[in-house]
Specification:
By secondary structure, this protein is α/β, with parallel strands linked by helices. It contains 11 helices and 14 strands. Helix content is about 40%, strand content about 25%. It binds N,N-dimethyl-L-histidine. One of its GO terms (molecular function) is methyltransferase activity.
């Protein structure tokens, strides 16, 4: 709570104003994100599911695992695990010996996933870990078992490039040579495809973005009037970064009681809430160049919208 208050105070005092996207994910936000993932405009989910369901054998072949050696399959930000279940099933069918360790910030999501796996894959050894990716990183090196780390869904795209660099660098420092990282990323493409994914007709993404203000109202005693803010996504193919903003429709003053502070918004003033980076080989190579990982392979969907990059620890 104190950290939340600090981050919000800092963000709204910035010029231009910002709010961290990690705070989207409370109970209501988790639910809205689930809805986003099943929208027709949000092509990312289907594209990565296609890779996991159609190229499962190829993926397992590329992972180059030893059937005789127990390994750990660690998933950062596991969510509902729908894509991963395709891989888990095939690994079991082929007789691999492994444990699945899903990590997520949401205890809710983990409980649901554990229950689902118990029904569909009752023999699978599942060990859930709740927490922030960065917090969990240090804990993973406790065992010397071979590791495959999954970081899917273009979750890395919500980090600025410098943060992504240091995250993958840290990850490299916490695993052993020949361990694998499978990084699922959305690819740079024209705005006609990307923008609708962040600006759906039903207004689900708008509600997801506005939920941040609702959360500040609820948890910090603020009086944001959600009707006086608009959702505004922006993207250019040259930059390759989808950005989400909340825009004040009018000149207004908002009070945050628990801080004893007021914040003024001009008509048309923007709060930057999220970045969703899109990638290509050059962007990804620049991100991993100072880390201990090297690029081994890339699997894409038939439309070429999404890629799962296989990185190997040098
Ligand atoms: C979780 N993350 C990869 C999503 C994305 O595409 O950046 C979050 C999201 N924001 C708006 N729509 C979906």
């Amino acid at each position: 709570m104190e950290q939340f208050k600090k981050d919000i105070q800092l963000g709204l005092s910035n010029v231009p104003k910002t709010l961290p996207s990690k705070y989207f994910y409370n109970k209501k936000g988790d639910k809205l994100f689930q809805e986003i993932m099943s929208m027709p405009e949000y092509y990312l989910t289907n594209a990565e599911f296609e890779i996991f369901s159609q190229k499962t054998k190829e993926l397992i072949h590329l992972l180059n695992l030893d059937k005789e050696r127990h390994f750990e399959l660690i998933e950062l930000g596991a969510g509902d695990g729908v894509k991963t279940i395709e891989l888990l099933k095939e690994l079991i069918t082929q007789g691999f010996n492994f444990s699945y360790l899903p990590v997520d910030i949401s205890a809710n999501a983990l409980a649901g996933l554990k229950e689902k796996l118990h029904i569909v894959l009752p023999t699978l050894d599942v060990r859930t870990k709740q927490g922030d990716y960065f917090e969990v990183l240090a804990g993973i090196k406790e065992t010397k078992k071979p590791k495959v780390i999954l970081f899917l869904g273009s979750n890395i795209g919500n980090m600025l490039d410098d943060k992504a660099k240091s995250f993958i660098y840290q990850l490299g420092k916490n695993v052993l040579p020949d361990d694998k990282l499978l990084l699922g990323v959305d690819l740079v493409k024209p705005k006609e495809v990307v923008l609708p994914a962040y600006n759906d007709k039903q207004g689900i993404t708008k509600a997801f973005n506005l939920n941040l203000l609702d959360r500040i109202n609820e948890e910090l005693g603020a009086d944001f009037n959600l009707d006086e803010f608009d959702h505004q996504p922006e993207y250019t193919e040259e930059e390759g970064i989808a950005k989400s903003f909340l825009v004040s429709k009018i000149h207004q003053v908002v009070t945050i009681k628990s801080m004893g502070k007021v914040f003024a918004f001009k008509a048309g003033e923007k709060i930057h809430t999220e970045i969703s980076r899109k990638y290509n080989d050059a962007i990804l190579n620049n991100i991993i160049k100072e880390t201990d990982f090297k690029l081994k392979e890339k699997l894409t969907d038939t439309k070429g919208y999404f890629a799962d990059y296989l990185l190997v620890r040098k």
